[in-house]
Write a structure and sequence with these properties.
globular; alpha+beta; six-stranded mixed β-sheet
Length: 324
């Protein structure tokens, strides 16, 4: 990843911040003893994942099981991630009105910005309560722009997001976001995928704590959210109707010239129920319901489809997309 050698050392934080974005790549449909019809849409959202620092992928697939090969033991509990130390706030529950998210865990998530929560600010380390409030507000704005704003989602315009970051990293981020990286950090919908006219569902947490960045006192804000996007699709669509993005970002604030400068140092995350080819381009699109895999990499006895919607799901997951 390129970085100008003539930039201030703090500019290099952007490069260090590339993190590891694991990309969920494949959806599975299970057909077992005539249960396919009732599993319908839920089964079509079976997740898939990647485990690389920058985009890698292959094509989506469907896995079909025609008979039960062992007594049904039920879904395996999924691995959870521990919450970071610090002061935290977590999302509540959304409304129960009918929506494209019905029959998924996202049906209970708050809609749009309502799912983004901030803990009450308090003096932390060398930062005052007022500075903490300012930092939390700026991170919230960054999440809205990078995950909910149509300029980012549809127009793929990185400028509003980049403008929130420290000036000495903006050129790097502008160049980088023209490529295929950070697909689960700055969401861009594939051109041939069309969002349904409903707000994405959002659930997760925001935490802040005192930290160090490049040897300087810093305020760290950690965001960990699941974002679920619904798509406008024909009635005969056989793939998934929602796509799941689970991401964690570490935002750092340092004082410079009596102002708080924002650096995005580290990111991690995965996609679920998405199209593999789109994700190779850093784009989000629903799984298209393509032919079955030759060599399945999962089974009905592993963690359930719904597990990938859970904000406490570990980000350490296996990639089930072919690396084509």
């Amino acid at each position: 990843m390129e970085s100008g050698s003539d930039e201030d050392p703090f500019a290099q934080l952007a490069e260090w911040g590339r993190g590891a974005e694991r990309r969920a790549r494949r959806a599975y449909r299970w057909k077992s003893l005539g249960r396919a019809a009732r599993r319908g849409v839920v089964a079509a959202r079976r997740p898939m994942i990647l485990a690389l620092v920058v985009a890698v992928l292959g094509a989506c697939g469907v896995m079909t099981w025609t008979k039960l090969i062992a007594p049904n033991r039920g879904p395996r509990p999924y691995a959870t991630a521990a919450a970071p130390d610090g002061i935290t706030a977590t999302s509540g529950v959304g409304d129960t009105l009918s929506s494209p998210f019905d029959s998924t865990p996202a049906a209970a998530f708050p809609a749009g910005q309502a799912g983004i929560v901030s803990p009450a600010p308090s003096a932390t380390g060398t930062f005052t309560a007022v500075e903490v409030r300012t930092a939390l507000d700026r991170v919230r704005a960054a999440l809205v722009i990078s995950h909910l704003d149509q300029r980012t989602l549809v127009q793929h315009d990185p400028a509003p997001f980049v403008a929130l970051l420290a000036a000495d990293t903006r050129s790097w981020w502008t160049r980088t976001l023209k490529g295929t990286h950070y697909g689960v950090t700055v969401i861009r919908i594939a051109a041939d995928a069309h969002l349904a006219p409903v707000e994405p569902r959002v659930s997760g947490r925001t935490t802040f704590r005192a930290a160090k960045l490049n040897g300087r006192n810093a305020l760290e804000v950690i965001t960990n959210y699941v974002w679920v996007y619904a798509f406008d699709l024909p009635a005969d669509w056989t793939g998934s109707r929602t796509a799941v993005v689970h991401g964690e970002e570490h935002w750092f604030f340092v004082r410079a010239k009596n102002a708080l400068q924002l650096y995005l140092q580290d990111t991690d995350g995965y996609w679920s129920s998405i199209d593999c080819d789109a994700s190779r381009q850093g784009l989000t699109a629903p799984w298209r319901g393509e032919p079955a895999e030759v060599a399945p990499t999962s089974s009905p006895y592993e963690e359930s489809t719904d597990a990938y919607y859970q904000p406490d799901h570990s980000l350490e997951i296996a990639d089930t997309c072919d690396e084509a």
